[in-house]
Batch of 3 targets.
Target 1
Amino acid sequence: MCGIVGYVGYREAYPILINGLKRLEYRGYDSAGIALLNGNFEIYKKKGNVRDLEESIQRPGSATIGIGHTRWATHGPPNDQNAHPHLSNAGLFAIIHNGIIENYAELKKRLFTRGYTFQSDTDTEVLVNLIEEIYQVGSLSPEEAVRLAMMKAQGTLGILLLTKEYPQQIIAARRSSPLVIGIGEGEYFIASDVMPIIEHTRNVVYLNDEDIAIIQPNELSIKTSKNAIQIPFIQQLSLELDAIEKGGYEHFMLKEIFEQPKSIQDTMRGRINAQEGYIKLGGLTDVLERITQARRIIILGCGTSWHAGLVGEYLIEELARLPVEVEYASEFRYRNPVLFEDDVILAISQSGETADTLAAVQLARQSNLLVLGICNVVGSSLPRLTNAGVYTHAGPEIGVASTKAFTSQVTALVLIALLLAEKRNTLPCEKIKAHIQSLIRLPELVEQTLQQTNSNTQELAELYKNATNFLYLGRGYNFPVALEGALKLKEISYIHAEGYPAAEMKHGPIALIDENMPVVVIATRDKSYEKIISNIQEVKARKGKVIAVVSNGDSKIRNLADHILEIPLTEDILTPILAVIPLQLLAYYIAVLRGCNVDQPRNLAKSVTVE
Ligand code: G6P
């Protein structure tokens, strides 16, 4: 949510900022802006995406310091005025902000009474004027003014601030919204994630909550909001630049769908001993005993990560016989849940920055529970808040609709379930070895699924691109896949879609079925096979159009369904990983045919850092 980039050093800031914004655009794309400082501020801002901003800037000024922002609107509609950066009334400060100032209305009222006026509807403009007021009244340094303003402003913030009177300095401050500083030779790159940084340097420092950094060429100092000096902890990034480029694909989403054989392999790498038949998850070793003794596991997540959590529930309960509950993080955090001291929390997040998931984790930590994480982004907030966890190592996911993150999360959950099954003696060794053999074959089967379903999904997209509703049905392990398939379609093609457990269809959605309703049924050969055939018949009896995802060689459903998408046969526990692939492709091709912006669907953002 909202992308932030800043540069201070000896080079021209503008090209670094505009390219940085392009790399960050997946975080928000309703408006963008840049401030350069060279004696005076030069502010450029524009409704629309980064390209619109770039086209509107004829001749950018020359400056070696500047900040840039790409916005996902919270306060006020996307327009030029509400775009960041925002200037303070006396023109002393320019700010960009990611987060929400919850008490902004109250602060605004007070600033009004002191003569401040506002050009935008944003909470950010209130914050920059609050900083200016504190700075002027107290004759303080910008850093002190920011510290005091942070005490008055409630809510979340990641800010970069330029000060006219300190023309070589960027102040960065963080509360909940992520910020990372890239360290070059006499220059610094600041951003909300590493995407704009990796082409310049591999050395980075992640700011902690309540940190304030004072950044000048050749000088970085970090203090806490209580003014305690922090020694910057420099980490090395291992990411390669081509991992964040499209590599010949038309969209990041398609690239990421096709990367799944590799991303799944990377999730498993070094964690499976095929010969002896065991799983090793280094990140869980120290807490394994506690997990195996857990009264129950509560899985938390949002969006696609929540769907992966649902698969996790089926996996852990079936294989390790441990009770599991799956909750939306946003509900868990506000509903005063009953927790036991031997409960274990497992939070799942691709980005590691989803505000609701982080808040739910904080709540669990306050109750002294063991908190585990499954996360993709190394160095993000979630791994820093949890006691232990598993990285998915799927590589950067830039398409806003999550694809490879889901299959890697499910893969990590299979590993966790098998590890717990082994430790709790709930599965015979031979069975575990057989599952491991299937896991080893999985990347190859994912590749086969892509090859088998790519052109068929394109043909189906052509046939159904104008549908206004879709129903997705699945049972058992494939029920969460139905939810995920429907979510993919909604997110990127704006077609209304519902996912349902197939047997529940007759309790409501069946009323919607007529000859215009495409119904995607995941009907692989597993223990629900015969049951789901009956559900297909119920749809056909009402003239619905059935698109069935079936196992290779299926003959029964071929004669019943209008269309079939064949995928390789694998074990039930791994079927969701294969079955979701044609649904990702179908959503993708429909969205492309409808002319939608696949990588940046309207109103969405990749990482939702506000409530
Ligand atoms: C947003 C994204 C989804 C994602 C969800 C949770 O809504 O658009 O694709 O599934 O956030 O994100 P997380 O990073 O916590 O997995």
Target 2
Amino acid sequence: MKILGIETSCDETGVAVVTSDRQVLSHLVLSQIKTHQATGGVVPEIAARAHLDHLDHLIHEAVKQAGLDFSDLDGVAATCGPGLIGGVMVGMMAGKAIALAHNKPFLAVNHLEAHALTPRLIEDIPFPYLVLLVSGGHTQILVAEDVGQYHLWASTRDDAVGECFDKSAKMMGLPYPGGPHLEKLASHCADLKKAKHQFPFSIPMKGSKEIEFSFSGLKTAMRQVLDKTDHTPENLAALAASFQSTLAETLSYRAAQAMEKFCNAYPHKKDPALIVCGGVSANKAIRTELNNCASKHGFTLKCPPLEYATDNGAMIAWAGVELLQQGRTAPLSIKARPRWPLEELKELV
Ligand code: KG4
Ligand code: ZN
């Protein structure tokens, strides 16, 4: 089975062709980072126009690089939400048009589900598994019971963790998107212990038994520290390292609670897996912290390779494979959705 996948929900135009036996035949991502650096963040209207400018060419190139014609495809998958609605509509309409013109099934992919299924593109990870989804727009802990079946166990009261990285990085004068730049700055800190002593941050709502996230307080704390600190390169590197370490500890603190809950809910599950996905899962300090935490709880940490961690077409194509295998094709009348919680998947398709 060969599926074309189209991703346009934020600021990456991603197109890929993936097979049901886990081969990525082509995988193209055009980042709009330079376009959005001038404004320090994604302007939805500009993002949608940029997708429109480049998508046709990328689709033709991806199909060509896969050594296929449109007629060889078994289906066309596109992100139909959640995301910036202008961009979502561009990719969705392109996908529908190809499906209609070549008489192929259309697969309406939920962007969050695509992130949660991406590690299965690499290897067979049996359901159920625990998912920590950390991106620019979402911070959630979910149980994936099957394709289309998710239980939401935790989300954020305010900012997503990626947003917290990006906004704090912006305050530090780093370019957009802040996450990877903050990570790079933190790597210049030679002594993390000293940095944490010099610039202490605390895990939000520590001690609360409720599994939930909140990141706006950390962002405010960063503002306050920056206001009373000399912005020397050493101080900024130490500040970035301490801040990043607190974000990593926060995620692993809540993941630990969720792993305990998972063991109680699924007592017979052998070799449980914790999947970490979404753009922030590219962060090495976070991966290391979560890896240690998962092994302590008898879980194996599974992260997508870095190139599939941030938004891309291969994850959409793979989600399309999984949907088609279950016969979950979508009518061409399906609408783009700016909000599309994973728990609503069952009702929709
Ligand atoms: O999943 P994604 O590509 O797009 C959304 O669906 O939001 O995630 C983008 C987010 C941004 O906030 C970006 O700063 C963050 O992922 N990110 C990182 C790293 N790479 C990307 N955050 C921390 N460290 C990184 N290395
Ligand atoms: Zn994403």
Target 3
Amino acid sequence: MSNPSLLILPGDGIGPEVMAEVQKVIDWIGANTDTQFDVTYDLVGGAAYDKHGVALADETMERAQAVDAVLLGAVGGPKYDNLDFAVKPERGLLRLRKEMDLFSNLRPAQCFDALADFSSLKKDIVAGLDIMIVRELTSGSYFGEPRGIFQDGNERVGINTHRYTESEIARAARSAFELARRRSNKVCSMEKANVMEAGILWRDVVNEVHQAEYADVELSHMYADNGAMQLVRAPKQFDVILTDNLFGDILSDCAAMLTGSLGMLPSASLGAPMDNGRPKALYEPVHGSAPDIAGQGKANPSACILSFAMALRYSFDMGDAATKVEQAVEQVLADGVRTADLLQAEGQKPVSTSEMGDAIVAALN
Ligand code: NAD
């Protein structure tokens, strides 16, 4: 069997800095397990614009379609802020998501014990928290037609359309149920079926998929506004939360911040299974290119390393290795090793990006 393939797109700002630390973990996996990855690198975002005049070259898109998984750092930066919308760095990321048809966005909100004090909530509410938000990513209010700003008599009217087909809801639901089976087997689906027809259909289809294919998974439903309240009241009641594009955008940011720093948050965007059974997949940290600290060795590489751990689990069925990487990150934090974003006390000395990566690799050993 050929080696699993990874396309790495470090991107801009701190992207290349944090990705260099991921490469150390990939090397460790190669040296300590039976799996060797075929890794290739390419450009995305501003880095691609500088070379090709576009945020993602066609050849890069082709390579992304051909590999088992794509790992992306971050895109964007002040140098590119005034570019035409069509060539802005973010367009590279949007093109990847669209052409790979990555309809299921996974954002874990996991609170490492050593960072429980970072949350804006009380420690006992978040300590040990481990939930996963599955957000539908390719339809709903951000894509529905008609959309636009139109003249209506004497005034302008802004229109967006909240549109979902049964098949779009069903595939997102399957993604959440599959995930739940690998976790605590519970899905809570969130919509606004009380006031939106699209919410009624969402609830119906989720129930149908559940009854037909996933009756072993515990399913509940919640209105999304109550969901937001419950997330900050008692987040540990949830395992997997399934929701649409618009509500998911808001709920996943809310859940993410329960756990503290942006430098710790990974994500995955998954599509349909390929011929080899693996899903189309893009893994990336939630944070951006952080121009304020780029080039200074201050960035926390954990989010990007934890994104690679998600790739191990969801693309390569290497759950044990993924857990080992997550535990190494947790160990390093518990030992008090901190990049600048995670400092708590006056006088504490931060480690650099590469020292943090080295500490995680040492903990793996
Ligand atoms: P950002 O996430 O880049 O930074 C927000 C703050 O968090 C900054 O103070 C930054 O220093 C800090 N931060 C972020 N990641 C960190 C890390 N790993 N370690 C330590 N500190 C970290 O968001 P922003 O400042 O709003 O955006 C900067 C640029 O990134 C913009 O061009 C934006 O468009 C782009 N962006 C890209 C993505 C992406 O590539 N997916 C996501 C968000 C923003």
